[in-house]
Each structure stands twice: as C-alpha cells, then as structure tokens.
C-alpha cells in the first residue's frame, strides 16, 4: 500500500531519531515508570492477550511479556520492528507472541482476539481525525467484548509549556507553531532547528474522550502521566537521588486527575459487552 506523505514523514522522522533511547534520558525515566504504573492499574490479569500498537521498539511489550502477558507488537516504522527483533535475540529476552510492521487503521488480527490494546503513537501521529477514528474502530473490532483500550495522547499545551521552560517561545517560528497547536491541536511547520514531529495532533482531554466515544467505546477516565512533575529543576540529577525521585513520582500521582497539567495523558476506554445498553 502506498504511504501517505504523513506516514512517510513519520518513518523518516524515526529513521533519524532513535526512539529506543528516548525513555533513558530527560523526562523519559519518569514517563516510563508512570506509564507502567497506569498500564498495570487497568490491564486484566496475565496471561491476557495484549496488542501494543505503535509500541515502537517494544519497551513496554517486553516488560509486559515478563509479567506473563501474551503480547503482540505492532508499529508502522520498519526500523522499530527490526530493533525489537534484535532485542529479542539478547540472552533472556522474549520473542513476544508476534512482532510486525503494521498500521493501526488496518490491524492484521482477527475479530475479538485481544483482552486489551495499548495505542501509543497513532493518536498523536495522525493529524486527520478520520484516521484516528479508524484506529479506534480497529481497536474496537479486535478487542473482546468488555476489553480495555489504553489510549495515549499528547496534550494540547505540551509545546507551549516546553517552549516556556526552554525559552523557545521567543523564536517567532516556534511561537507561530504553538499558537496553531493551542488553537487547533495541529502541530505544523516546526522550526528547522527543532527535533520534533513534522506533523501531529495534540489533544485536549475532552477531544480524546469524544473520539473514543465516537469510535464506539465507553470512556471511563483520562489521566495525566507526568503532570507538572517533569518541570523540576535539573530533572536528571533529581531523578538519580532516591528521595527526590519519590517526591517527583508523588507529584505526578497527585496531579494525575488534571491531565492538562502535563505533556502526556492516557485515556481508559472499554468495548461494550452484552450487558451494556450502548452498542
């Protein structure tokens, strides 16, 4: 299938940017631990079948496999799947239930296969709402009745807050970019010096809830992953100090019910089962 320009841009971006390293530095360790906390809070018990859609190099896939889940990793970037396969060759690593290049809008899985689906990148890499709704509809198709979808997104104000902290807002091109983001959710025309997505969509929590419901799912809650905890001065040094790390995590947990306070959020939704009035 011929790729749309945005899909080509996604692949080009990740061919130049090493996603496998992202969670090791800066806000990455905080994001990883909080994401693991929230995933385990809502997943059904192992050995449930989980699809990790847009799961990149499989950081969460391999972790979930180690907890006893049957995990299928799907990502649109061939490099990511190759990196996951290389990781699976390491001593003590799992090969997972499957690893494949795939599109969240056209999942190569049977109806009602999965107990849970995790969607990472597809909802913010898809600037077209219809594409996001197709990804949600595909998740619904593959989920068992009553199955859980954990949908990850980037908040509408992420670029604005990040730009304020780094002083990027004084660059007129950056400021035009974040003005569009805040007003429309669309990331477009980033400055050439900024390593970021060329195109994306950043959600307000209400928009994410509406998209999940329009896709036929029952929205249960939306939670912030980091809150404002990532803004602590000298995050890397503070994270290495055990006492300060616990404070940072406590702040992230304390503010999780206000998802606009941080750059990333996770929505919990469920496929209706036979006992639901809504189908």
**Beta-strand residue fraction:** 15-25%
Q: Which segments are poorly predicted (pLDDT under 50) over 5 or more consecutive residues?
A: none
Name of the CATH architecture: 3-Layer(aba) Sandwich
User: Distance N terminus to C terminus?
Assistant: 32 Å
Biggest sheet features? 7 strands, mixed
> Number of helix segments?
12
Count of folded domains: 1
CATH superfamily: Vaccinia Virus protein VP39
The CATH class name reads Alpha Beta
What is CATH's topology name?
Rossmann fold
Question: Mean of residue pLDDT?
Answer: 92
The overall strand count is 9
Helix content: 40-55%
Overall structural class, as computed from helix and strand content, comes to: alpha/beta
Main sheet strand line-up: 3-2-1-4-5-9-8
> In one word, what is the shape?
globular
Tell me the series of helices and strands, N- to C-terminal: HHHEHEHEEHHEHHEEHEHHE
Radius of gyration: 18 Å
Key structural traits:
12 helices; alpha/beta; 18% strand; 279 residues; two-stranded antiparallel ribbon; Rossmann fold
Descriptive report:
With 279 residues, the chain is an alpha/beta fold. It has one domain (5-155, 203-270): Vaccinia Virus protein VP39 (Rossmann fold, 3-Layer(aba) Sandwich), CATH 3.40.50. 43% of the residues lie in helices and 18% in strands. It has twelve helices and nine strands. The strands form two sheets. The chain has a seven-stranded mixed sheet, sandwiched between helices. It has a two-stranded antiparallel ribbon with strand order 6-7. It starts with a helix and ends in a 9-residue tail after the last strand. The mean pLDDT is 92.
